[in-house]
Amino acid sequence: MSNVFSFTGTVGRDAEVRYTPSGLAVLSVTVANNIGFGDKQQTLWIRVALFGKRAEGNLQNYLKKGQQVFVSGELTQNEYKANDGSMKTSLEINANIIDLIGKKNESSHGQQAYQASGTQASTPQGGSHDNFDAPYDDDIPF
Question: Is the pTM of this model over 0.85?
Answer without folding.
Answer: no
